[in-house]
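Archive record:
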Amino acid sequence: MSSAASLHPTLARVLDALDSGLDATRERLFSLLSIPSVSTDPAHEEDCRRAAEWVAADLRASGFTAAVRETKGRPLVLAHHPGPQGNGGGHAPHLLYYGHYDVQPPDPVALWKTLPFSPALVAGPHGQRIVARGAVDDKGQVMTFLAAFRAWHEATGSLPVRATILIEGEEEIGSPNLEPFLTEERAALAADVAVISDTGMWNIDTPALTTRLRGMVYTEIRLKGPDRDLHSGMYGGSALNPINALTRILGTLHDEAGRVRIPGFYDDVRPLDPATARQWQSLGFQEDAFLGAIGLAHPAGEGNFTGLERLWARPTADLNGIWGGYTGPGSKTVIPSEAAAKLSFRLVPDQDPEKILAG
């Protein structure tokens, strides 16, 4: 590919640099994937910092000025490259690249066939694939442009564009400290184009440009009952059981048609315009195959909407975790003092997250 006669000579050199450096690039990716940068777990605070420092060091090796910047939570990385020097290089387009180094918790670890932070090459349906926590969200995508920067730097000594890189460490927990940083660094982050590589392809053969994503509200509910755990043989039938009460409440979150029952939840939902609906219909999405790949046979969610509408244009409410009482092996007849649950809401255009949270 890199030696094709039709390629521009500079691009051919860059592609040759990518090809010759493939093994080294994979080693760098494996090194980053080996860092357990789980942002939601305080026990991995230092791992998150280590990942940020790794990214900053990698960018410096490609000619960037890069710094690990502090926030009230996990640090982020901000880096700049001036682009081509001389010959009007200062007028080159300014691109802003965004990604994140943090990952979701790997639990339950027992279900992994390989260790989540020991990256491995395994056989997949389309050839070899890299398996590790973060390989596809988002360290793998981040490495695509880190590798491209390094190849351009090695082949030409510079980049063809001015570039600013923002790699945060809290995307998996809703980016609570990103907005203040964006406001503070507004001037430095101003760019002609923002490139975000944290989405998917339509299929293995068809790339996609993602132009819209649902937003999110994440919250936790705690319900307290007695002031201590109780024995159900002594108090059952008299004392409130918080797990019983919480599950009864959460069981009313959706109606029989799959609609969220929170008052006002759909008030500001923007209907999908007919032109977009026709475009989506033309994609030929097969929901039965989509669900069959994960062992399911029947779709859930709101009725009277297509699969892609439910996935892309309709809001959702999901329980992401629930706990309370005794969950170890064997039995313990306890009425717990409290129960808790985590909920997330995927939001669509015109929905106000503050309004949804207050609802």
In short: The CA atoms of residues 2 and 11 lie 8 Å apart. The longest strand covers residues 215-224. The two ends are 55 Å apart (CA to CA).
